[in-house]
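Need a sequence for this fold. Nothing fancy.
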């Protein structure tokens, strides 16, 4: 199906298909972390049950407007989805299964904060179809956890992982952050050691970004946020790559490491620039050549979703913009971008005909290399360290 508004005589159209990936946003948290700019709200006093009612109505309206044959991946993010109590969790997960045709081998991920997953909640998650949990550990240094506004302790991470394994979960991941205020390279090394002792199949490792509308941004503007120097932060990232590589993890995406077969299938949908449903307050979705963003506030979302699709905005994505997006997200992957995938999405278009000048320049300066194996391009080791310079070439 082609979108007529995107066609021209000289530019191919975008190949469009129904999403097979589903993102659902639960915007409630136990508290707001100092670095967080996600659409999230402290759960105390919030109309959580009314939110779940509205969310189910958005599910119903979504599949009515854009049906799909099968959902391969589900990702429930937030906020902290595990602030739902067991009965709310059971009800929510039943609604997902009721409205969406989940594949037999669906990857069903839920984000969790350490300390919010007792055995009762884990049992409800497992029974409801969740088979992958991503814990926000961030660091194993209790002092740094307090500095960034986390309310869990390092021991809570260890206990939460043990609980999840006891409940039958085997596909587990944790997030670690580096470049935190006053963080030293030694503190990062200690956290990596403790993380690897957990023997998990997947690790996500992110550098701190100071985002607007956060406490950290206000402190940064007042020159009161003592961040590590750039060379220290680079050394931290290089240490992460070295340690995870030595431990047998594949660096399959700039910020993600996995044992073979445990790569995040859902996030790979984003990195391949493929369509996905986005439900819940502030959620983003991408389908049929359009991106949308939902209304953000909890009560405004509830009011809107009870009468129709709760869209704050919809934007048609031009072919040129979609091609740029394809390059920016695809080059984050170790495999890079392939000619075959580009042709599939863009009606037979050739990578080098569209982006030849940019590709040649980035190869010349040693940031990209040509992959003869799959007729594509990927980051060099130098390019991995200077990724933003590469991605910016395709904006």
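Here you go.
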């Amino acid at each position: 199906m082609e979108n007529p508004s995107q066609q021209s005589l000289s530019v191919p159209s975008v190949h469009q298909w129904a999403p097979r990936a589903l993102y659902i946003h639960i915007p409630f948290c136990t508290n707001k972390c100092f670095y967080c700019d996600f659409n999230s709200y402290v759960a105390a006093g919030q109309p959580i049950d009314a939110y779940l009612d509205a969310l189910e109505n958005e599910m119903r309206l979504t599949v009515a407007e854009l049906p799909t044959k099968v959902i391969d991946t589900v990702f429930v993010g937030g906020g902290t989805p595990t602030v739902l109590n067991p009965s709310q969790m059971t009800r929510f997960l039943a609604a997902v299964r009721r409205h969406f045709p989940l594949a037999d081998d669906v990857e069903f991920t839920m984000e969790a904060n350490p300390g919010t997953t007792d055995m009762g909640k884990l049992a409800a998650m497992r029974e409801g179809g969740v088979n992958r949990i991503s814990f926000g550990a961030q660091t194993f240094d209790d002092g740094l956890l307090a500095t960034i506004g986390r309310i869990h302790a390092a021991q809570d991470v260890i206990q939460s992982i043990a609980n999840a394994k006891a409940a039958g979960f085997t596909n587990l991941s944790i997030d670690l952050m580096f470049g935190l205020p006053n963080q030293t390279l030694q503190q990062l090394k200690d956290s990596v050691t403790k993380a690897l002792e957990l023997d998990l199949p997947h690790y996500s490792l992110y550098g701190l970004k100071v985002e607007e509308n956060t406490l950290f941004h206000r402190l940064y503007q007042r020159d009161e946020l003592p961040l590590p120097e750039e060379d220290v932060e680079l050394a931290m990232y290089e240490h992460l790559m070295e340690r995870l590589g030595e431990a047998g993890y594949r660096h399959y995406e700039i910020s993600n490491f996995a044992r073979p077969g445990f790569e995040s299938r859902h996030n790979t949908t984003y990195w391949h620039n493929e369509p996905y449903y986005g439900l819940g307050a502030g959620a983003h979705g991408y389908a049929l050549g359009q991106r949308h963003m939902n209304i953000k506030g909890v009560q405004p979302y509830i009011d809107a979703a009870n009468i129709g699709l709760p869209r704050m905005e919809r934007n048609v994505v031009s072919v040129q913009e979609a091609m740029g997006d394809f390059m920016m997200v695809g080059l984050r992957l170790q495999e890079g971008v392939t000619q075959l995938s580009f042709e599939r999405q863009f009606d037979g278009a050739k990578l080098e005909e569209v982006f030849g000048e940019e590709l040649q320049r980035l190869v010349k300066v040693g940031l990209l290399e040509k992959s003869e194996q799959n007729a594509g391009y990927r980051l060099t080791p130098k390019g991995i360290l200077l990724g933003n310079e590469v991605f910016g070439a395709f904006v």
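For context: DSSP finds 15 helices and 17 strands in the chain.
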